[in-house]
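Researcher: Predict the fold of Filamin.
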Amino acid sequence: AGNGTPKVQLFSPTTEVNVMLQHLGDSVYRASYIPLTPESLLMTVSWNGRQLKGCPLQINVSSAADASRVICSGDGLKHGIVGQEIRSFIDTRRAGPGELTAHCVGPHKVAYCELYDHGDATFTLNVKPQEAGRHALTIKYAGEHVPGSPFTLKVAGAPDASKVRVYGPGIEHGVLATFQSRFICDTRGAGAGQLTVRVRGPKGAFRVEMQRETQKDRIILCRYDPTEPGDYRVEVRWAGTLVPGSPFPVRIVDTQDELLLLNQ
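Model: Structure tokens for Filamin follow.
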């Protein structure tokens, strides 16, 4: 190019950006600048006052990724059930450009993770665990953990009504005056689910009282209050499915002699 001096100018839509030139020797120069806002810039390079071919050059400046500005929400960050998709929502709109990744590991197996891009910098994360137990869900943006990551995900086993045990005098025949209506529903090992108990007597449905020591207790004490002799029906379901032995037929009689005849 012969002897001369380069000149570099950089323009944003509103102002000129300062460009620093450093002579490295042997007609080699280094140009550097600091963009202050994410926008499109135009660069012109000239040598000895003549603009180089291909100028002006367009430069797109984007903001740096900031994982701390990513927002994750939804119950899928806390708990779920084996065999069912666990869903959460991720918003990266305020975090700048970057790559979003998700990885979930259980006690022994890796859970399948799928990120659905809505096209507006928001995502739906679907996690499908293969086993019950505590899982670690790692969500990163531009290689950095987002707030809350890694999340502790408690995954319960799929509901299995066949594992529920029901026992106690309340599902056995008895004498009205001394009848003990309590019975136990032990749901340990039955996976995630909801216990429903219905009692019908000679004149219709009965209110059932259900108690447990703590909210997380898997052993539930049930009781009802029969007021007359007759045939009763105790129906117990786990996650909508009848448990073994249910419905339990219960006959309540007036006298001990009637009970003895009934049990013969």
